[in-house]
Amino acid sequence: MNVINSKTPQGPLSEKWKEYKSHQKLVNPANKRRLDVIVVGTGLAGGAAAASLGELGFNVLNFCIQDSPRRAHSLAAQGGINAAKNYQNDGDSIYRLFYDTIKGGDYRAREANVYRLAEVSGNIIDQCVAQGVPFAREYGGLLDNRSFGGAQVSRTFYAKGQTGQQLLLGAYSALSRQIQKGTVKLFARHEMLDLVLIDGRARGIIARNLVTGKIERFAAHAVVIATGGYGNTFFLSTNAMGSNGSAAWQCYKKGAYFANPCFAQIHPTCIPVHGEFQSKLTLMSESLRNDGRIWVPKHKADAEAVRAGKLKPTDIKEEDRDYYLERRYPAFGNLVPRDVASRAAKERCDAGYGVGTTGLAVYLDFSDAINRLGLKTVEARYGNLFQMYEKSVDENPYKTPMMIYPAIHYTMGGIWVDYELQTSIPGLFAAGEANFSDHGANRLGASALMQGLADGYFVLPYTIQNYLADQIQVPRFTTDRQEFDTAENAVNDKIQKLINIKGKRSVDSIHKELGLAMWDFVGMGRTKFGLREALAKIAEIKREFWSNVRIPGSGSDQNTELEKALRLADFIEIGELMARDALYREESCGGHFREEYQTEDGEALRKDDKFSYVACWRYTGEDMEPELLKEELAYEYIKVQQRNYKE
Amino acid sequence: MEKTINITLKVWKQRNPKSQGAFETYTLNNISIDSSFLEMLDILNEQLINEGKEPVVFDHDCREGICGMCSLFINGRPHGPDDDVTTCQLHMRKFHDGETITVEPWRSAAFPVIRDLMVDRNAFDKIIQAGGYVSVNTGGVPDANAIPIPKDKADAAMDAASCIGCGACVAACKNGSAMLFVSAKVSQLALLPQGRIETAKRAKAMIAKMDELGFGNCTNTGACEAECPKNVSISNIARLNREFLFAKLKD
Questions:
Q1: Nearest CB to A76 within list B67, B135, B141
Q2: Do B35 and A177 touch (CB under 8 A)?
Q3: A402 plus A488 within the same structural domain
Q4: Does residue A328 carry a catalytic annotation?
Q5: How many Å apart are CA A296 and CA A290, to the nearest integer?
Q6: Are B134 and B106 contained in the same domain?
Q7: What does the CA dihedral A452, A453, A458, A462 come to, rounded to 10 degrees?
Q8: In chain A, which end has fewer C-beta atoms inside a 10 angstrom radius, N or C?
Q9: What is the count of structural domains for chain B?
């Protein structure tokens, strides 16, 4: 018992996936029609999986909380998608993408999964082009590439600054085609509130119709969770307002392990926080670091003058600027991975060199690029991002440098899955950001889109058949079963309990308090003391929430405050597990930086002898300490070393 | 010093699709001009909740102008008094102190109100389902560089593909036409060799679905283009008409 088995196939790294596909079980066309699959989420992973499973002939039920599958938050990704095509002839290969991803993740990801990801990355680009995704092209008609952090090659494909949108619309079009054909049934404005198990297997979900408030039941032979990450635990993040961790959290509470919850990514280039009313943080694409240079004033006096509004950044002479990333990391310069760039910004601001009215901002400057390439070229490359910045901040980034600061962006942690993307509950699969699998302790830019689509188009449609092949004798389930009664009753009780609190505080006011505690203690710099403080604070917030939240309206009607409250109830518990995991992991790696563990020059210091494992948390009951299980990480093909972006 | 303004809001309130709606008036003081329009509505809702009332319901999600979920007809303009933005990117600096701001949902027969400012745009999904795709399955496709595509064609396809499906074009149109939305998808796919093959069938199927769902006709007023937050051009409508005509002539 309690041995974590990743079910990684035997054999050489480059043969594992081929071997798996050659020997896995398949389901014949006649049987596919008799098998139902629930896919929760319509982003890159969920949308691609639902469409592909529908094409194969399975009967798919697909859910999303938005009014249309085209709005899933995958679409907000701006900069691009990585693929080891080596179209630029600059030395890229499957191995190099695999290597960069493992290294970028600070040696905390599973080798076999990451290799497979790199292997199928090229197919994704082929697929998207075939769907009519308008990627950027060269004058000769072939595809263009740009560079992203953590790589020395140009392997990022892009569609202006709207790559995520275009890829999602590709998946959405494939999904729409299947909806038309009747293989996929879509349930928009539906939110999953619980997972239903029958004899230990995932067999259905309970969902709330967000228009009518009605609680509805859905049964299937297998369930796929593709509901994204839990970055909104921090209240302020680059996630959409509706993005939440609740579907994943309900799976955890039903027995699915939750892996590496403390690995959250802080993106270095976001528009800085500017007021208490602020509802979210806006990302400025990492692609800007191709041509933008990051700097702060070299002298504290200049920084103070800028903060007081007495000095303009354009008045600061070249020799009085500190291009700190180029200074500290000569080999990668402004294109170091996100965790490194974020910490370096924090270090400068903490030391008193920050700019903006709050001192919590650094400059991202395009004047060099404009001089070198001309205004037109810069506009063609980044025009829509510059427009977005100007609309938000009311400053023209062509004339004055942008101001940026790190913000919570992505969660590498998530539901634990094995090589087949199956969770520790049989029949429950997790794909995309919702699972923990491929990014280790830090995700490289342009790799989220790659992973979402890899899972959805090219991994899950294979691996889920290996499970479903054993289910062909299992008849369809009726939702009248007692398991569904129990689950629905529990959901109704929870809703009634929340409505009946009738306290004094709005959901948002409590969520903001949670977000602050998370940012202060479970953010960019973590300490043992701070994390203990966080656990105490979160427990306090939990008590406050369950005794003093106010939700107007009724539980059996359209009710946006109730939706938010149900999500916040889970965010509070997720925050607690994040803090617990961060406290337990006494090392620094990737996005997890424990201030006690750093090298002399302030870089993350891993402790491979003690922590080279995936931390899998198992739920043991309400208000009980969860149990920690470990999946040891064995590196057979990569030499584990200290990450170095300096030389 | 942070600059703030006081405003009066006239907001459309409607319990459900069938009930009668009406404007309700609220006053808000000390609103920072740096807050976005939706953050201003957050402040209103916080105030309403604290008074024990139900909040104003409106659609929103990404709050960075890309998901197309937010809508709102503000002072008679879809997405309000700024150009090339969605409501979530509209900031209070575009309003002046003491102003009365009228906020309505999209008004269109094809987009029924669900509640208050939230409307049902399912009709757009149905139009896409009718043919807004290239009929390829996952896997078995040629290499991405196998078919070169002229850069100007790819760029024009990208511009058409910028549509976020928010519905501002329909809300702006006196006929409630969805031609800009339909033409953007038809154009994107017609400009690319991968999508070209099904163009005739696609144009016919999407237009038939659009008509069936109760959208109006296009009379070339250009209001859709003027209000499109993503600058989708009405030249796409000309292209759609051309493709549609060719398709009909072949029949």
A1: B67
A2: no
A3: no
A4: no
A5: 18
A6: no
A7: 40
A8: N
A9: 2
